[in-house]
């Protein structure tokens, strides 16, 4: 008895590959599934990319599935005014639930109750763990941290806090 295994080529479509011409080339190169990361981009941009995929699929007479990757619940920092900013080891940095333009002093967060969820001594990781903060002081709106591991920081990067339970709903 012979078992046939079907392998699919999945391509993530991003800013560098979202034009009609690039998508057509990907299809001609064997793309079976176009993956869109819905954690980034606007509804309008995703709509345009889906139209490009559909049109290129029709033109090449190839069937292409569209995979929508929905981001799970994630706490992020807000907008940084002039990016990137540089967080220096040993300096103070404030995470706040107030709407403030982000800079080297601090930045807003997307989870308003974050100051109530953390405690003094907790470690907070930013930008996929590349930056590390330690909580030094708390107010009802602010988390005052010391930068343990510094580096460049840009807008909307993720926040990770190990061993903290967050009540964040996700799309199901």
UniProtKB/TrEMBL annotation:
Query: Which pathway does it operate in?
Result: Carbohydrate degradation; glycolysis; pyruvate from D-glyceraldehyde 3-phosphate: step 5/5
InterPro entries to which the protein is assigned, alphabetical: Pyr_Knase, Pyrv/PenolPyrv_kinase-like_dom, Pyrv_kinase-like_dom_sf, Pyrv_Knase-like_insert_dom_sf, Pyrv_Knase_brl, Pyrv_Knase_insert_dom_sf
At the top of the EC hierarchy, this enzyme's class is transferase
Coiled coil ranges? none
One GO MF term = kinase activity
Keywords attached to this Swiss-Prot or TrEMBL record, sorted alphabetically, are: ATP-binding, Glycolysis, Kinase, Magnesium, Metal-binding, Nucleotide-binding, Pyruvate, Transferase
EC numbers for this chain: 2.7.1.40
Stretches assigned to the Pyruvate kinase barrel domain? 6-172
**PANTHER family with a match to the protein in the record:** PYRUVATE KINASE
Hey, which family's this protein in? Belongs to the pyruvate kinase family.
Name by which UniProt lists this protein: pyruvate kinase
Tell me what organism the protein belongs to: marine sediment metagenome
């Amino acid at each position: 008895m012979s078992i046939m295994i079907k392998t699919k080529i999945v391509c993530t479509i991003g800013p560098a590959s979202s034009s009609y011409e690039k998508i057509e080339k990907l299809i001609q190169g064997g793309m079976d599934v176009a993956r869109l990361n819905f954690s980034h981009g606007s509804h309008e941009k995703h709509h345009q990319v889906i139209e490009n995929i559909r049109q290129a699929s029709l033109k090449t007479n190839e069937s292409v599935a569209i995979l929508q990757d929905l981001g799970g619940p994630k706490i992020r920092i807000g907008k940084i005014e002039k990016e990137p900013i540089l967080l220096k080891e040993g300096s103070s940095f404030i995470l706040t639930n107030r709407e403030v333009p982000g800079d080297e002093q601090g930045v807003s967060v997307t989870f308003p109750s974050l100051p109530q969820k953390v405690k003094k001594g907790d470690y907070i990781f930013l930008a996929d763990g590349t930056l590390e903060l330690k909580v030094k002081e708390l107010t009802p709106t602010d988390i005052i941290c010391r930068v343990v591991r510094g580096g460049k920081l840009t807008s909307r990067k993720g926040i990770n806090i190990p061993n903290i339970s967050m009540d964040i709903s996700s799309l199901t």
